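User: Before I run my own analysis I want an independent prediction to cross-check against. Here's the chain; please return only the structure tokens and, at the end, one sentence I can use as a sanity check.
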Amino acid sequence: MKSLRASLLRLTLAFGLSFALWAFVSFSQNPDENVTFPEMPLQVVGLDDDLVIVDTSGVPNQVFPTIDVTLRTDQRQLASLRRVDLRVVANLSGLGPGEHMVPINVEATRSNVAINVAPGGVAPAQVPVRLEQLSSAEVAISVEIQGNIPFSFERGEPRVSSGGQPIHMVRVYGPISRVMLVEEVRALVNVEQLRATYVAPLALTPLDGAGQPVEGVRVEPGTVTVQVPINPVVGLKLVPVEPQIIGLPAPGFEIRSVQVNPPLITLAGSSGPLDAVDLLTTTSLDLSGARQDLSASLALEFPDGTSPRAGEPDHVTVTVQIAPIERPFQIGLPTQVQLVGVAPGLIANFNPVVINLTVTGSSTALNELAENPISAVVDLSGLGPGFYSLTPEVELPAGIRLTTDLPSIDVTLRAPATATPQPVEEQPTVPPPPPDATPEPTLEPLPEPTPVAPSPEPEPEPVPEVTPTVVP
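Assistant: Structure tokens:
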């Protein structure tokens, strides 16, 4: 019995000495160290679907502070430890609307990584979070029309549609405090000097009671089609041409742009048929399987009771640009040319009045072109009478760039015609007879007929050039 006890005692002592030796060797060969991972991104989890994180103004906020993390680990784990092995988390589970101080937790993304946060190793240790209830509301659409149309044209009431259906109300989504501020959504239309019906997709801007934009809300649908009828009072009407495109390009290809030349046609007819025409269509152009640009002369289809004005074509050239699908998006924009700096007393004629610009940019930047249309400006400052070929200046919004060279604009500057004075024939003067002389009868010669030049035929007044404005 004593021998057994002695054996157990010796075994326990040997085990203790072995463990002490192992601990001494381990800590001397693989000591613990502190390692800091600065500016770790913070991830938010556990947020309820009907809540949203907002800033102090109630605007949705997804920007969080970075976190500095200090871990205590041994050299063996430190050799393989990377930033991607850690995740800094703020758990919002169970939190309701209001302001909260949420603690920060550090988790491992790999099962073989042991997390031992050093004392004070998370800075900041907690972050303030403000939660607000999500809400929605229906608001009315208003259309603000700016600009004046030319004389002899009249403007009708604007019509708003989405997906081909009339629409008068939209729904606004966002934090409840921001949704309650929205009184209406507005589309801005500029019809300055337009001679054809305005049709364009426009973004809707949410406004408060003072007419100021409201941030932090989402409008569904965010874009609507606005049509403003513009019709001539007389029997002429300028309408845009809409080519009939059928079929789709080959897989992997897309339509970059569709250009129509000329883009506008003047129709003649009685007021009834003209009022019913908003655009002209063409015969069909089939793009099925196309892998490159297509160009074709298509016949115009004139509605009953209308015809092209004298001198207008009955065919248009339609050019469709086909290109491989890529991002960012690229579109073609017919852009009106404007002249500035014309010297007083000079008359300017220029051609073309509309140029086609090919621009590229993100879908968001291209959508903003509806509110900020591009214009091409030709500066004639300091130029006298003569013929000039000038390149216009185009100011592009941020995120938009040209992909083609700008065409030249032919400009003719001339002085207005002045009348030439005609010489007046002087009549001979007959001296009076002396007072005592007896007047003798004289025969006055009959006046010779004066040849009169035939009146010139009145020249037809030149028809002013129509500056086409193409609806984007």
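Sanity check: The domain at 29-133 is CATH 2.170.120.30 (RNA Polymerase Alpha Subunit; Chain A, domain 2).
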